[in-house]
Every structure is written in C-alpha cells, then in structure tokens.
Amino acid sequence: MKRIFIILLLVGTMFTSVSAQKISAVKVPVEVKGAFAKLYPGVKANWEIEKQDYEAGFTLNGKATSVVYTAKGVLLETETAIKPNELPAVILAKLKGNKIAEAAKITKADGSIRYEAEVNGKDLLFDLSGNPVKP
Predict the structure, then answer these.
(1) DSSP β-bridge partners for residue 113
(2) Phi first, then psi: what are they for 86, rounded to 5°?
(3) 7 within some domain
(4) Which range marks the domain in which residue 53 is found?
(5) Do residues 116 and 124 lie in contact, with contact meaning Cβ atoms separated by under 8 Å?
(6) Do 88 and 69 share a structural domain?
(7) Per residue in 42-67, pLDDT tens?
(8) pTM of the full structure
(9) Each residue's pLDDT tens digit, 81-132
(10) If DSSP states are collapsed to H, E and C, what string results for 71-109?
C-alpha cells in the first residue's frame, strides 16, 4: 500500500511540474518585472511559471495577451488572442470543416510570427505560409 501511495505521489508531482503554475508577482524576478514594466507601463498582469520561464497574462486593447520571459528578463514571445476568422486565409483553408475554438498570433523575439488554432482540444501551430510548426 505504501508503495502504491509513493508511485501515485511521484506521478502527481510529474504532472504538476509540467503544467504552468500561477504565482504571486512577489515571486517574479526583478529583471522580469522590470522588462515587463518597460514594455507595458502601468499594466497589471497575472503571472505564471512554466519550467524556468515566466508568463504575464493581461488584456491589451481589449485582447487577451501574454508575454513570456526568461528568468533574466529576456523576452521570448508575445501571444495575442485573435478571432478564428482573423487567421490567415491559407491557414483557414487548411482547417476548413474544423471548428476552431480559439486562435492566437504569436510573435517570437526574433520577429517571426506563428499562428495557433485550437481544434478538437489540441493547439495547432502554423507559420505564415500555413505550414504546420512543432511547438
């Protein structure tokens, strides 16, 4: 019985550590908060940590937005929610006949753009040409 409990505890810990966890702004490194405040002065965010990266979620111009930073405050990407019909036509054509629950435009720090579409509970990523991209 003790052995089963330990196995369940380990499995539960693995799943917990893989998903993002909400954290208090107090626990966000100063470098990260400073980088965020520089780009979005006066904006309040909800913070999460996933692996070693920090994600700030907030609303900007009426759209759900999130930015991801390294622990040193280096911006990795910005994700902005868009309406499914705002996806590029080439992506909409590839997804024709599928219900798109949510969509987002992701801008990487290097300026490259990806689009995300949630279809059948799965997040699918595409480049500007509509080619599938691995996460």
Answers:
(1) 107
(2) -90, -5
(3) no
(4) 20-77
(5) yes
(6) no
(7) 999 999 999 999 999 999 999 999 99
(8) 0.81
(9) 999 999 999 999 999 999 999 999 999 999 999 999 999 999 999 999 999 9
(10) CCCCEEEEEEEECHHHCCHHHHHHCCCCCEEEEEEEEEC
